[in-house]
Amino acid sequence: MSTQNQQLAKQEQSMTPTFDLFNPVTFDLAQRMANMYSRSDLVPKQYQASQGNEQKAVANIMIALETAQRIGASPLMVMQNMYIVYGQPAWSSKFLIATVNSCGRYNSLKYKFDKLGEVTLPGTQTKVDNWQCIAYTTEKGNDEIMESIPVSIDMAIKEGWYTKNGSKWQTMPKLMLQYRTATFWTRAYAPELSMGLKTDDEVYDIVDVPYEEIPVNVEEKVNQEIKNHANSETLNMGGSSKSAPSGENTQGEGDQTPPPANNGQSGRQPSFL
How far apart are the first and last CA of the chain? Predict the structure, then answer.
């Protein structure tokens, strides 16, 4: 990066208000700003103070202020472009692209499209154009091209992004390719701008299920099943006659011999009683 670009970046950072949340003076200033934002109609609902929700709204705004300070963005822009998807905070893709373009370190992101033929949707005979997109740019003062990994419609289908209900990949595939390649580019070259957060469309497409190992003693489980069902009997309610093994007394349909008396002794009852 050239000396002039470094000076511009330092000037932009000096214009951004800084808050040390461990400093009582700046913490009080940030809290007053949060109270001001919470009473505005221009911020999203999760940041607006309502009856019984004042403290939570202020807390959300304090986090947004700290995030805006870290990435050098406007607090209002951060609040308007940060979403909660499946309980995870996520950026909007257009905000992430704007952050890269305006950070002062890189030239604006550009996109290269190539048509790689057609691809068949799984389970159907429908064919769609297999577009591939690559996001690229250069660092200011350097001619080296920085490219994202290629993302194609074939990848979107194999990953399950394309076939989800209500997927935007089916209606606006080129725009989704731009968003996804820009996300991958930022994650590879400027992860500090996204602070490790995914984009909202990425979270919708890729839902991470936390892995939890549950130890199961198979032998103990089998023994418990045997114990639970060892004393159960199957009662034939159909009345059909079946041949019994030799040595056992059976009562067929034509046998009128009455069953033996119970003599007051409790016998084993069917399992469903």
Answer: 83
